[in-house]
Amino acid sequence: MENKIMDITSKERLLLKQIRKRTPMYVGEYSLNKLGDFFEGYREALFNLIK
Q: In 23, 43, 46, 50, which residue has its Cα 20 to 30 A from 6's Cα atom?
């Protein structure tokens, strides 16, 4: 599968804005690794929706 760089939606921008303000509420602590895991799960959920 080819990886394409795409712009994000306005809903995703709003989510990022909310996460930036209160990161520990979403991933438990200030951690880039946990934030990366959060977005990996988000990506997987999106791909499962379109299957």
A: 23
